[in-house]
UniProtKB/TrEMBL annotation:
PROSITE patterns: CYTOCHROME_P450
MF (Gene Ontology): heme binding; iron ion binding; monooxygenase activity; oxidoreductase activity, acting on paired donors, with incorporation or reduction of molecular oxygen
Superkingdom of origin organism: Eukaryota
Protein name (database record): Docosahexaenoic acid omega-hydroxylase CYP4F3-like isoform X1
GO biological process terms held by the UniProt record: small molecule metabolic process
Binding locations of heme: C531
A single Gene Ontology CC term: endoplasmic reticulum membrane
Keywords: Endoplasmic reticulum, Heme, Iron, Membrane, Metal-binding, Monooxygenase, Oxidoreductase
Any single Pfam family the record assigns to this protein: p450
InterPro entries: Cyt_P450 (IPR001128), Cyt_P450_CS (IPR017972), Cyt_P450_E_grp-IV (IPR002403), Cyt_P450_sf (IPR036396), Cytochrome_P450_Monoox (IPR050196)
Gene3D superfamilies registered for this protein in UniProt: Cytochrome P450
Cofactors named for this entry: heme
Subcellular location, record wording: Endoplasmic reticulum membrane
Length: 598
């Protein structure tokens, strides 16, 4: 009886609902009996519009829906075909279907160890899913890396996913540009890294290292002062490393000190500007360091990948403000030099530079012309200067810091390096590294290369394939995919390097290095898009390391170091080493009497 009452009530409710719908539609019948356009009009609230307007809007909506459907089906087809073509490559187990492999290799020591294990399990290539719809191809063997790195900038440009956040800061510099623009800029910038231009920079590297070790002030050095004798007005203000050691602070964070030192050198080499950033705060240097930090933070916050949202946040506003400060500084230097060039003319400008033997990066770019006689615009010069500052300070600082770490762990190699440097500089006063000395330190060079293999400053580089790329074994990387050339994975690949976790400088002995594939050791990348400033970086590393080992003994910290990959390879809590001053003719105290007195 109760079931019949329930059915009767339900039937009455349905009849009432149908009657209400019929009334709402002007008595034309039930909603299910309406023609599709009229039904859509009621559903979308278009019934109040004129019939003609309503029909146009409906057609537009139907066209939009059809377009979305067609695009969606086309994307599904491409995704399916791409997945089928990628089945020839192995992949490690997924974290889950939605995140793919995200989270399996965090930016921690454990994440690095996981990547080392992947290099052992997958000796050449494997798939790495960044979410459910974005496969990337990781390459970690010279044979499979070769076709990608040797491809032109048009076939394998840098992708926007990993480099896009740097665009507002670096613009279309060499790091981010592609195609014909990249090729043109590369040709025009090459003279800036010629040996004749690099030679005078060795003096700057010596001075910056002196400041880091002993805080020898070079405050009067710059464009407006004596270029013939940049250190002529120097005076010792205070000890830095030595003062800290004397006060009992023997454990120093290498990154903290060496990053400021490389920034100091770069400002002098790029802009001929001395900010004294190793001795006092600099707004420009602070902005550079803040930009690097903000880019790292954004990489770790996927919700802020969308520009419209990011620039509404405090992080985005800080990023914009720091960008403006950096751009204003570089633009002011460019305008000043362009005015001087216009007043003097290029020939007189070059004569003055030849006399002072200090032609900087901006000077070369202002004078550069392409095959058609066209010069770089101010915007192009600014982008290249900002790119050089970004690419030159943290990577070199990371390289130097990890070399000192490895030499602290292996005192026998450190002693060998020190002996080599002492013999090279024997009888010289003052003890200063010169250009010709850079090729006379073979064991130090081997230690630098050994450290760059074990602790590469940049863990990977990415490329987006605009065409299919065939690997030597016949497998094909389909176009449209992002490829990650794993520098770290290649350097830790046991199929390439026996006992890859061991620091062994003798791997790079000349007699052995000839047997090593050129693509087995790629801290500066390789191919047409390799690092244009690698000779600059290696020169600075040799000078700073030679002077440091001559003046100090470095010892390991009692706490183990945990690696942390960011834009460059860092240490989680800083890379602290114990520093002990060495007495000898190279000690700054030995030359106190030589410093000009006021």
């Amino acid at each position: 009886m109760s079931q019949l009452s329930y059915l009767s009530g339900s039937q009455s409710a349905c009849e009432s609902a149908a009657w209400s719908l019929e009334e709402a539609n002007g008595g034309d019948g039930l909603l299910g009996m309406l023609p599709a356009p009229k039904w859509l009009s009621h559903l979308l609230g278009l019934a109040v519009l004129e019939p003609g307007v309503s029909s146009i809007l409906l057609l537009a909506l139907l066209a939009l829906g059809t377009w979305i459907l067609v695009k969606g089906l086309a994307w599904v087809q491409r995704y399916y075909v791409n997945c089928q073509r990628l089945r020839c490559f192995p992949q490690p187990p997924l974290k889950n279907w939605f995140f793919g492999h995200l989270g399996l290799a965090p930016d921690t020591e454990e994440g690095i160890c996981y990547l080392q294990e992947l290099s052992r399990l997958f000796s050449d290539v494997h798939i790495w899913w960044m979410g459910p719809f974005t496969p990337t191809i990781r390459l970690n063997h010279p044979q499979v890396i070769s076709p990608l790195l040797k491809a032109s900038a048009i076939i394998a440009p840098k992708d926007k996913l990993f480099y896009g956040f740097l665009k507002p800061w670096l613009g279309d510099g060499l790091l981010l540009s592609k195609g014909d623009k990249w090729s043109r800029h590369r040709r025009m910038l090459t003279p800036a890294f010629h040996f004749d231009v690099l030679k005078p920079h060795v003096k700057i590297f010596n001075q910056s290292a002196d400041i880091m070790h002993s805080a020898i002030s070079l405050g009067l050095w710059g464009r407006d002062h004596d270029h013939h004798h940049p250190g002529a007005s120097s005076r010792i203000l205070q000890a830095k490393w030595r003062r800290l050691c004397a006060e009992g602070s023997n454990y120093l964070d290498m990154f903290e000190h060496i990053s400021l030192m490389t920034l100091d050198s770069l400002q002098k080499c790029i802009f001929s500007h001395n900010s004294n950033c190793q001795e006092k705060p600099s707004a420009y240097i602070s902005a550079i360091m803040e930009l690097s930090s903000l880019v790292v933070k954004r990489y770790n916050q996927p919700l802020l990948y969308w520009d419209a949202l990011y620039y509404l946040t405090s992080q985005g506003r800080h990023f914009s403000r720091a960008c403006r400060l950096v751009h204003d500084f570089s633009n002011a230097v460019i305008q000043d030099q362009r005015c001087i060039l216009a007043q003097q003319g290029s020939e007189a400008f070059l004569r003055d530079k030849a006399k002072s033997k200090t032609i900087d990066f901006i000077d070369v770019l202002l004078l550069a012309k392409d095959e058609d006689g066209k010069a770089l615009s101010d915007k192009d010069i600014q982008a290249e200067a900002d790119t050089f500052m970004f690419g030159g300070h943290d990577t070199t600082a990371s390289g130097i810091s990890w070399v000192l770490y490895n030499l602290a762990q292996h005192q026998e190699h450190q002693d060998h390096c020190r002996q080599e440097i002492q013999e090279l500089l024997r009888g010289r006063q003052p003890e200063e590294i010169e250009w010709d000395d850079l090729s006379q330190m073979p064991f130090l060079t081997m230690c630098i290369k050994g450290s760059l293999r074990l602790h590469p400053p940049v863990a990977m580089i990415s490329r987006c394939c605009t065409k299919d790329i065939q690997l030597p074994d016949g497998r094909i990387i389909p176009k449209g995919n992002i490829c990650l050339v794993s520098i770290f994975g290649t350097h830790y690949n046991p199929a390439v390097w026996p006992n890859p976790e061991v620091f062994d400088p003798y791997r790079f002995d000349i007699s052995k290095s000839q047997k090593i594939s050129p693509l087995a050791f790629i801290p500066f990348s390789a191919g047409p898009r390799n690092c244009i400033g690698q000779n600059f970086a290696m020169s600075e590393m040799k000078v700073v390391l030679a002077l440091t080992l001559l003046r100090f003994r470095v010892l390991p910290d009692k706490d183990p170091v945990r690696r942390k990959p960011e834009i460059i390879l860092r240490a989680e809590s800083g890379l602290c080493l114990k520093v002990e001053p060495l007495l000898g003719p190279s000690s700054p105290e030995a030359h106190l009497s030589e410093a000009p007195q006021e």
